[in-house]
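[job 4471] stage=fold_predict status=RUNNING
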Amino acid sequence: MIEYEQALDICRNSPETAARMLVELAELTGKIPGIEDRQHRLETENTRLRKRVDELEQQLAKNSRNSSKPPSTDGFKKPSPKSLRKKGQRNTGGQPGHPGHTLQMAENPDHAEHHRVEHCTCCGRSLANQAAAGIEKRQVHDLPPVRLVVTEHRAESTRCSCGHLNKADFPEGVNAPVQYGPGVKAAAVYLKHYQFIPYDRTCELLSDLFGCPMSEGTLATIISKSHELAAEPAEKIKTLIELAPVVHFDETGSRVEGKRWWLHSASTAGATYYDIHRKRGGEAIDEIGILPDFKGRAIHDFWKSYFAYACEHGLCNAHHLRELTFIHEQYQQDWAERMIDCLVDMKEAVERAKRTLLPLSETRIQAFETRYRRILDEGYAKNPLHSLPPNAKKKRGRRKKPKARNLLERLDQHHSEVLAFLYDFDVPFDNNLAERDIRMMKVQQKISGTFRSEEGAKAFCRIRSYISTARKNAVGAMDALTRLFDGNPFVPEFNPL
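[job 4471] inference complete, writing structure tokens
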């Protein structure tokens, strides 16, 4: 084998020898069997690996700001905040005229303690009989000692002169020799299904704060009873949502008995309905039963199963803005940034029109549509769909396309759903209402991880539907739950626009 220094000497001192050796080496290489095939395989493998590296880099680049990933997946490396909102003119904090929420002194305190001056701090003379020259007041707001209030019901028995023994009736709901009242039951469900406190800690909290010892089995029985009592209000909520003109839909993964299920939500400004199912698509939607006969407009995030239903549709533009941000940042395609500006300008124009109670003119709408179409054309020019080579191997299914191309085709083919908010002011710009309603369900999953049974998951969904709807109608969670156990449940009577 020739060393590097020897080869260098040959090249310097005998160029003819070096040239002859190179020719011989080229001839020898050409005679090695299979070298061209190996070179082709290496080039193919290199192309495949480059493509895989690109895919992995794109996955790493995704976060809650430029994709549909939740903020919880960002980890400790939070993305730099880049809000699409324009900076306002007002300073941060409370604005002039804001009343504030400072703790105020009570006009009629429950208790008053008088602190007298007994001796002069200068000469030591007694001041016990001296009238006070003035009084300075300070108030301490604190919780009173809390304990259970036990009410004993005594039903008399009286024998008539005819010999019949008559017994007084106990109030409705007083069925056992010893039992918990509606307030305790409401507090137990409130802590477990509204504040997401685990079973054992809920029982511990009830004992520590209220002197109310309760076993986990009793708590489970109370929750099961609340599930039963909330059946009628939940059906009423479901009916109101079915009749609404605009409804927000969303779904998220949830674990039941260690397996992946799907939690579905349907929301309006005044009602929320949750349900859980083994499936995510059409089978689950049909069994839940809201969309099959729904006649209004369904707002969602382009999950294909929703388009199987004959209602009108509206797409979440918050998702589009995040996807466009990703295209602009990762592929450096300027059309994506211009589309962001276009959608945000449309949104601001609609908000101004709503404040002035005047519709957008046809000329203004046409100008927005022309601008939208021009940006799409620019995007198509940047992302052409190349034809396959004649000898390409045919594959089953749809042809895989780049992310930018898929987004372009969605914005193009479903432009009426994307821009529905521009034509109808009752249609929102995004699906944030559904995402807010489903966010607390994700909090529950972070705390508990899984539902131990299907019955427990169903109970959770129904109770949360009842509580969420009550709170949207200015009824507190504790108040609504107490009314549920009192036999007077909150049932919304409103037009859920």
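[job 4471] summary: The mean pLDDT is 87.
[job 4471] exit 0
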